[in-house]
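User: Hi! I have a protein structure encoded as tokens and I'd like to know what sequence might fold into it. I'm fairly new to this, so please keep things simple.
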């Protein structure tokens, strides 16, 4: 049976016309598939709608993905929306299963880069956006639309990472802590989360096909991620030098302080001003300690014995 019908831009085609390599899993049990037609968007310069957009400055980062097929689906979503920089954390080799779902996106898998840690994968990025399905306990969590709106406030040459976690566990608190912006993709049903490949595709589609000319940037370009991390560590150590942290709360306060500074998406000027403030505070504290009267002098002052001196 050959089903061919056209209505509202949707094409329905018999599953028997699908390539044999695709006829596995749920596709084998489906009587037809739906293919939507859409305008192609180039990887740089201008879209058909005249909106400037450069997909080459974005990297998709998958952290410890478990299912090769999901990696392939993510690559396919990237190809569909014009993105190409795929980075894999904790994946040393791609099995054939990843290529089976990466239809017309094999070149993205071939060019994918592997990293031992998330920090290494992010080191050259100015902005890091991380996806999470956990709403509870996430400071600064925003919707996908708001995250993309914040992104448009930075210069168009800023290099961006879009980070997605493991299919079962998502991103850990430590991994989420490395991001500047955390977002959640809305859903109608009470599902725990989207499939990894679907989450990547939804995010990239919203990013690539958002309507309208972007507003002029209002922020300076941030430091690259490795420099932001270095600044955060220095701020934390300086706060420790001021006596802000105690042994009983050092781990908790350190993490919260690091989280606050990361969400600031530091620029070079931000870093330099904050460092100057810390240095002045430390210098002022040292000078105050030098000027502070000793116990005997304090006792004399209280008794009024130093009046008239």
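Assistant: Happy to help. Inverse folding works backwards from shape to sequence: for each of the 309 positions I chose a residue that suits the local structure. Here it is:
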């Amino acid at each position: 049976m050959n089903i061919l019908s056209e209505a509202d831009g949707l094409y329905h085609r018999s599953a028997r016309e699908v390539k044999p390599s695709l006829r596995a899993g749920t596709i084998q049990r489906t009587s037809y598939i739906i293919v939507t037609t859409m305008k192609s968007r180039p990887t740089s310069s201008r879209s058909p709608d005249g909106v400037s957009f450069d997909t080459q400055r974005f990297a998709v980062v998958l952290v410890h993905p478990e299912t090769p097929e999901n990696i392939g689906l993510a690559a396919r979503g990237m190809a569909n929306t014009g993105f190409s920089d795929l980075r894999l954390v904790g994946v040393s080799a791609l099995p054939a299963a990843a290529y089976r779902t990466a239809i017309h996106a094999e070149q993205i898998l071939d060019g994918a880069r592997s990293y031992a840690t998330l920090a290494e994968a992010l080191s050259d990025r100015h902005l890091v956006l991380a996806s999470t399905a956990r709403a509870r306990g996430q400071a600064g969590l925003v919707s996908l639309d708001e995250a993309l709106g914040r992104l448009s406030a930075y210069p168009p040459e800023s290099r961006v990472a879009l980070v997605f976690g493991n299919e079962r566990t998502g991103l850990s608190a430590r991994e989420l802590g490395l991001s500047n912006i955390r977002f959640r993709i809305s859903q109608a049903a009470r599902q725990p989360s989207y499939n990894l490949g679907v989450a990547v595709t939804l995010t990239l589609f919203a990013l690539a096909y958002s309507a309208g000319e972007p507003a002029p940037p209002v922020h300076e370009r941030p430091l690259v991620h490795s420099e932001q991390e270095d600044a955060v560590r220095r701020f934390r150590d300086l706060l420790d030098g001021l006596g802000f942290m105690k042994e009983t709360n050092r781990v908790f306060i350190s993490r919260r302080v690091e989280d606050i500074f990361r969400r600031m998406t530091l620029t070079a000027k931000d870093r330099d001003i904050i460092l100057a403030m810390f240095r002045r505070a430390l210098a002022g504290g040292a000078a105050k300690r030098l000027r502070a009267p000793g116990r005997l002098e304090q006792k004399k002052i209280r008794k009024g014995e130093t009046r008239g001196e």
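A useful reference point when you look it over: The radius of gyration is 26 Å. Feel free to ask if any position seems puzzling.
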